[in-house]
Design brief:
Blueprint (H helix, E strand, L loop, with lengths): L1 H5 L4 E4 L1 E5 L2 E5 L2 H4 L6 E4 L5 H13 L5 H11 L2 H35 L4
Parallel strand pairs: 1-4
Antiparallel strand pairs: 2-3
Amino acid sequence: MIESMANGTPVIAYKSYGRDRKGLKSTGAVGEVIDHGVTGFAIDAPTSSMGEREAVRAVARIDQLDRHKVREVFDQNWTGYREAERVTELFYERLRIAQENRDLKKTLNNSRETGRWY
C-alpha cells in the first residue's frame, strides 16, 4: 500500500476483521495506512454484501482523489525519516517509563526503611 502511495497512486483495499473477547474488530494495516477518501478507500470485506458494492463504487470514485495529496500524506507519515522519528519517540517514551518505575521502586524502598510515604 505505501509503495503505491509513494508514487501518488491511491489504494483500494479490504479491511480484515478478527475476533477478540469483545467481538469482531478491524485488524491489519489497512485502517492504519489508508486515509479513507484521501489516499484511497478502505472498504469492508468482500464477503459482506456491502463490501462488494462499496468496492465497485470505490473504483468509480478513484479518479476523484488527488495524486499529489496521496504523495503528500505518504511524505508526512511513511518516509524512512518519519519512521525513524516514531521509533525514537517510542524508545524515549519507554525509557521515561522505565525511569519512572525505577524512581517509584526507590521511593517505595526508602519509605519502607524510613516509614515516610513521600
